[in-house]
Structure to design on (426 residues):
């Protein structure tokens, strides 16, 4: 057994699940993460520590990071907002390190040396990044043990499956990842760039066409009630700091995102004006008091997730809808595996919480599945379970007795270095 056993009830392993929308952090064995930290981080020049002696370049490099919801959403002068993620992988390591520091200090509130750490990663993660995270955890945080698992595998585990096709629809994209006996079949991963951020862009465009002014809450001191579709009456807060464009845009997107969550719905059959014409409209009020009712566009915007052919964006015809992503992925797998993939289609990711997403996907896939196959869609009912699918899978895995011999121990890392992560973590 490699490097002793870490398991037992008293050792709390930590599970980190980074995504484009947020980083989920918590203790293994619990049913939901302790905290969800936004993947967007504010960065402003640190005026207190800049010495008079610093030259130009040093001055630029000293910056203060604003992490987590509270300090990120408070208006400050010169605070730029950016993310450390790119294409499902960690891109800006300095910023990510700051977020990890924050997690240990404010959320875990315990020494990093005492907890083994399980990290989730994108199935297409690159070798150098896997080694980098392994090195960071052992060298900087001195963790006793570390392990890296593909998030699709974890999402399957969270739904009680070790084989299945994981459909993960998150912030930046929707992907179909075939998992067989806890291993990802790399050659058959299919992803499409249609995710929650894409819907946010479509909503923003739609509201722009409707001439709706989007005013983030930080600017509003008070508002008066107005009639439906009337011009809003609101007062601007006095003496606001001069905020950067990136921060203001981020705040506007948050408003649009709220609109998106409250109003959008996937229609259960293919969208047509007649079908949705009879469905009652839904009222929505913006932070500045402007309110209106929304009808057909509630269904029209999310339709692109399932049928992107009608999109007015370059390359719209080449994009794949959610059901198409699934069938393409299954088609790339071995014939013998297909029945077990069609029989276990696991749905996870925050974007699947869109009203009616599962019903529509189920319907589209029933039409596309060959008649000889048994098709079954597996989706957790609770919104928690779908949003934190891969975190919960990590929590289950890291607390299993049989998993305890799998960890890469500190001793192994010191003997063989960061290459160990490629040998031990599939």
């Amino acid at each position: 057994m490699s490097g002793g056993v870490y398991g037992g009830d008293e050792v709390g392993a930590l599970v980190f699940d980074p995504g484009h929308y947020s980083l989920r952090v918590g203790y293994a064995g619990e049913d939901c993460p302790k905290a969800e930290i936004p993947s967007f981080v504010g960065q402003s020049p640190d005026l207190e520590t800049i010495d008079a002696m610093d030259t130009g370049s040093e001055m630029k490099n000293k910056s203060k990071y604003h992490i987590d919801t509270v300090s990120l959403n408070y208006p400050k002068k010169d605070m730029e907002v950016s993310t450390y993620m790119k294409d499902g992988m960690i891109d800006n390591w300095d910023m990510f390190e700051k977020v990890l520091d924050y997690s240990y200090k404010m959320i875990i509130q315990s020494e990093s040396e005492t907890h083994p750490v399980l990290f989730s990663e994108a199935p297409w993660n690159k070798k150098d990044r896997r080694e980098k995270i392994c090195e960071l955890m052992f060298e900087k945080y001195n963790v006793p043990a570390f392990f890296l698992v593909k998030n699709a595998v974890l999402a399957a585990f969270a739904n009680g499956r070790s084989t299945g096709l994981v459909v993960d629809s998150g912030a930046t994209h929707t992907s179909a990842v075939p998992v067989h006996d806890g291993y990802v079949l790399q050659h058959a991963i299919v992803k499409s760039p249609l995710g929650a951020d894409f819907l946010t862009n479509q909503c923003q465009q739609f509201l722009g066409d409707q001439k709706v002014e989007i005013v983030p809450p930080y600017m509003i001191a008070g508002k008066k009630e107005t009639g439906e579709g009337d011009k809003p009456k609101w007062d601007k807060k006095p003496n606001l700091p001069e905020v950067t464009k990136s921060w203001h845009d981020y705040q506007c997107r948050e408003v649009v995102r709220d609109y998106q969550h409250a109003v959008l719905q996937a229609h259960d059959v293919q969208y047509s004006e007649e079908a949705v014409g009879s469905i009652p409209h839904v009222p929505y009020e913006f932070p500045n008091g402007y309110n209106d009712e929304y009808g057909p566009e509630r269904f029209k915007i999310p339709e692109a997730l399932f049928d992107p052919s009608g999109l007015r964006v370059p390359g719209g015809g080449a994009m794949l809808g959610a059901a198409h992503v699934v069938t393409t992925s299954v088609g790339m797998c071995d014939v013998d595996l297909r029945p077990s993939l069609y029989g276990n289609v696991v749905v996870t990711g925050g974007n699947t919480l869109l009203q009616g997403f599962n019903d529509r996907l189920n319907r589209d896939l029933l039409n596309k599945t060959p008649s000889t196959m048994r098709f079954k869609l597996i989706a957790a009912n609770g919104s928690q379970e779908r949003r934190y699918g891969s975190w919960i899978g990590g929590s289950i895995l890291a607390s299993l007795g049989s998993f305890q011999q799998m960890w890469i121990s500190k001793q192994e890392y010191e003997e063989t270095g960061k290459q160990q992560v490629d040998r031990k973590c599939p």
In short: DSSP finds 16 helices and 21 strands in the chain. The first helix runs from residue 56 to 61.
